[in-house]
Automatic annotation (TrEMBL):
The lineage of its organism: Bacteria, Pseudomonadati, Pseudomonadota, Betaproteobacteria, Burkholderiales. Residues 485-578, 615-698 form the 3-hydroxyacyl-CoA dehydrogenase C-terminal domain. PROSITE patterns: ENOYL_COA_HYDRATASE. It comes from Caballeronia choica. This is 3-hydroxyacyl-CoA dehydrogenase. It is found in: Peroxisome. InterPro entries: 3-OHacyl-CoA_DH_NAD-bd, 3HC_DH_C, 6-PGluconate_DH-like_C_sf, ClpP/crotonase-like_dom_sf, Enoyl-CoA_hyd/isom_CS, Enoyl-CoA_hydra/iso, NAD(P)-bd_dom_sf.
Length: 708
């Protein structure tokens, strides 16, 4: 229900002596266009038309933004009038000049409101864009019809298909806005602009009548080029081609028909599961930031970072910290390793310079923040130290003993271990409250995920500091508990085992990889193994061999490859062949022969798998272990598992993550699959108690996500 008083407050209209009706949207945090805002805006325009004293209208946003877009939380619920397209049409139809003065975000529906106004300005620091595509949508309040009329088909398609934001200057160049506000104060600049327009008796100027599509031939060519490119690049996605269709309608149909067409396409997008998946991802990646410790404690300041180890991870972590403007002190075993560590970092920057994405002076500035040492004493005054040495508990404990000795009181001591027991590492020092896991993903300067692994004794302020650090490094932090592999690698081990079982039972690794790619992952599990290097997993398997349940199924195919020295890309062959350093592999008949031999050795008669069955097993394994991780409190909520897989494991974003996907296909169906698979291998396929409980209650994973 709407509270009219509240609505009054959310959209305030003030008629000034100079005849300008200032309409201020005040709907924190981003002035999203919820039903109250739409009603308020509509009423304000009615008032402007009805009152003679009004000579012009100025629309501004209160707070940090103009308008962040439609209210995403309303999608999927019963629509409440007036619709946003109606509001935009009413603004455009206003008989008095309407000016939009933009600061901060004018995104999606926010930009569409501005496009419906008759004149627009933006101040420096504005972000304009039509990012609906990132949510599985298209601009549905006239954006697909007005934008190409205003700035031409090609520029409009680029904005809508990329979803990118443009600043005030580029918006001015594109013709999205008429001017850049000279003072930077949107209200003051907007008022000055409106006064000028009144003085010049400027007419209303409707975007629907703009001539951006007049050059029909080039518009048609732009649309066709966009269609070809989109079919190739976004083949898994639903909304991008609908955007192209909508722009075609803008070219071919009168404005009002085009709007109707846009509406139909928009509703199709709203109904698509991709919209639900992408919007889930949008909220989930914000929700993960709100770990309980971030509310309970104040972060410690982190103005300097130490990194132990300059290998693959140490170098990547150092780059991430340098890029965030932090000074980094790297400690290595000896001068040669230190020089290699520095060279790893320089190589990253040289790559960027070569591609023109970094200037030489910027590289020099980043490198000037780096210092190296072979002595731990160099870390005496550092605020946060991240250890990235060999994956060996004794080696790590020795490093932590050194840190305990040299680091100042209050320094945060972090480990980047992938699997090891961080509680044990913490227990080995005199200050366990300062010890935390910061699990970066390779390449650490690029991958967005940061698992913040929270051991039993760590201080809440240390956890809060880790979340603050993630923000600085532009990482997406997910809180995880201590266990073998934390959230991501623990779940990975299980679905990788499911893939191994299928391989031994009759599916080729190439079919499995293809099916997984078709599902939307960039790579299948065997391609991933080849990329990461088979030796790492092999070492882990050998380490765990003694502890393995002798009754549990163990597929030896990967061991057979490793015994031959086939570790993947770095050795030129693994599950695939990589002739002459090729980065994409080709299927290897010798691997197929080894797989056949292993099947025979295990006494298995191979059977055929459909791609659908492969995905059902692969996903059921992932979902079941994801549920265990939530059940045990290793992940706070299902959405934390989703974000882990979206940002660390290439899970297709439009499916929202494994737990969201489970809800989409129905948890009862997933459970039925697990129970059916358990008939063959009850040890491996043990339904998670959490799934059983949710299915019994008729509930889904989403019901566990609303904790904040
Ligand atoms: N609807 C509802 N809530 C929104 C929202 C929206 N459009 N945009 C942001 N929020 C919420 C966030 O969920 C967050 O909530 P929380 O505090 O409870 O976690 C809060 O607002 C603040 O958001 P951010 O943390 O992202 O704040 P920032 O200051 O970092 O960024 C922003 C602000 C640039 C506006 C960013 O929030 C953003 O990109 N928002 C989405 C923009 C967008 O995609 N708009 C298009 C919507 S679809 C549409 O308009 C359809 C139309 O064509 C019909
Ligand atoms: P790496 O072998 O590339 O680098 C390790 C570095 O540590 C080497 O340069 C070595 O000289 C140095 N080192 C070893 N002992 C040292 C000591 N006592 N003092 C100072 N330096 C020492 O290993 P990588 O891949 O960088 O892994 C490091 C850690 O990160 C491991 O714990 C690993 O499990 C973890 N990790 C690895 C990921 C990966 O994809 N490679 C992903 C996430 C975590």
């Amino acid at each position: 229900m709407t509270n009219p008083e509240l609505a009054d407050d959310i959209v305030r209209s003030e008629l000034r002596d100079d005849g300008i009706l200032v309409v201020t949207l005040d709907n924190p945090p981003v002035n999203a266009l919820g039903v109250d805002v739409r009603r308020g805006l509509l009423a304000a325009i009615e008032k402007a038309d009805a009152e003679r004293a009004v000579t012009a209208v100025l629309i501004v946003g209160a707070g940090r933004n103009f308008i962040g877009g439609a209210d995403i939380r309303e999608f999927g619920k019963l629509p409440q009038p007036p619709s946003l397209p109606e509001v935009c049409n009413r603004i455009e139809a206003c008989t008095k000049p309407v000016v939009a003065a933009i600061h901060g975000a004018a995104l999606g529906g926010g930009l569409e409101v501005a496009l419906a106004a008759h004149y627009r300005l933006a101040v420096e620091g504005s972000k304009l864009g039509l990012p609906e595509v990132t949510l599985g949508l298209l601009p549905g309040a006239g954006g697909t019809q007005r934008t190409p009329r205003l700035i031409g088909a090609q520029a409009a398609l680029d904005l809508m298909l990329s979803g990118r934001h443009v600043g005030a200057k580029e918006a001015r160049t594109l013709g999205l806005v008429d001017r850049i506000g000279p003072t930077g104060d949107a209200l003051a600049d907007g008022l000055a602009y409106a006064q000028e327009l009144i003085a010049a008796r400027a007419p209303v100027r409707r975007t629907r009548d703009a001539a951006g599509l007049a050059e029909r031939k080039s518009s048609r060519a732009a649309i066709e080029a966009a269609r070809t490119e989109t079919s190739r690049k976004s083949r898994d996605l639903f909304s991008p081609l609908k955007i192209v269709d909508a722009v075609q309608a803008a070219l071919e149909q009168p404005f009002d028909d085009g709007l109707r067409h846009e509406r139909q396409l928009f509703l199709q997008c709203i109904d698509s599961p991709q919209r639900a998946g992408l919007i889930h991802a949008f909220f989930a990646e914000r929700e993960v930031q709100k770990a309980p410790e971030t509310r309970a404690a104040k972060p410690r300041p982190i103005a300097s970072v130490g990194v132990i180890g300059g290998g693959t991870m140490g170098a990547g972590i150092a780059v991430a910290a340098l890029d965030a403007g932090l000074p980094v002190t790297m400690v290595e075993r000896d001068e040669a390793s230190l020089a290699r560590g520095r060279a790893h970092i320089e190589k990253v920057y040289d790559g960027l310079v070569a591609k023109g994405r970094m200037s030489e002076p910027a590289k020099a500035a980043a490198m000037s923040r780096w210092t190296g040492s072979t002595s731990y004493d160099a870390l005496a005054s550092i605020d946060l130290v991240i250890e990235a040495v060999f994956e060996d508990l004794d080696v790590k404990k020795a490093v932590f003993a050194e840190l305990d000795r040299v680091c100042k009181p209050g320094a945060i001591l972090a480990t980047n271990t992938s699997y090891l027991d961080i509680d044990a590492i913490a227990a080995s020092v005199s200050r366990p409250a300062d010890v935390i896991g910061l699990h970066f993903f390779s390449p650490a300067n690029i991958m967005k995920l940061l698992e913040v692994v929270v051991p039993a004794q760590v201080g809440a302020d240390v956890v809060a500091s880790a979340f603050e650090l993630a923000k600085k490094l532009r990482k997406v932090p997910v809180r995880a508990g201590v266990c073998d592999g934390f959230i991501g690698n623990r779940v990975l081990a299980v679905y990788r085992a499911a893939a191994d079982h299928m391989m031994e039972d009759g599916a080729s690794p190439y079919q499995i990889d293809r099916a997984v790619r078709e599902f939307g992952f960039p790579m299948g599990p065997f391609q991933v193994a080849d990329l990461a290097g088979g030796d790492i997993g092999w070492a882990a398997r050998k380490r765990r061999a003694a502890a393995r349940d002798p009754e549990a199924r163990y597929v030896q195919i990967a061991d057979r490859l490793c015994e031959r020295g086939w570790f993947g890309q770095k050795t030129g062959r693994g599950f695939y062949l990589y002739p002459e350093g090729a980065r994409t592999g080709t299927p290897d008949p010798e691997v197929e022969a080894i797989v056949d031999a292993e099947r025979a050795r295990a006494g298995i008669t191979p059977r055929a798998f459909t791609d659908d069955e492969i995905i059902r097993r692969y996903m059921a394994a992932m979902i079941n272990e994801g549920a265990n991780v939530v059940h045990e409190g290793i992940a706070l909520r299902p959405l934390d598992v989703d974000v882990t897989f979206l940002y660390g494991y290439g899970f297709p974003r439009h499916r929202g993550g494994p737990m969201k996907y489970a809800d989409t296909v129905g948890l009862a169906n997933v459970l039925a699959d697990i129970r059916a698979f358990a008939k063959e291998d009850p040890r491996f396929w043990r339904p998670s108690p959490l799934i059983v409980e949710l299915v019994e209650r008729g509930a889904d994973f989403a019901s566990l996500n609303h904790t904040s």
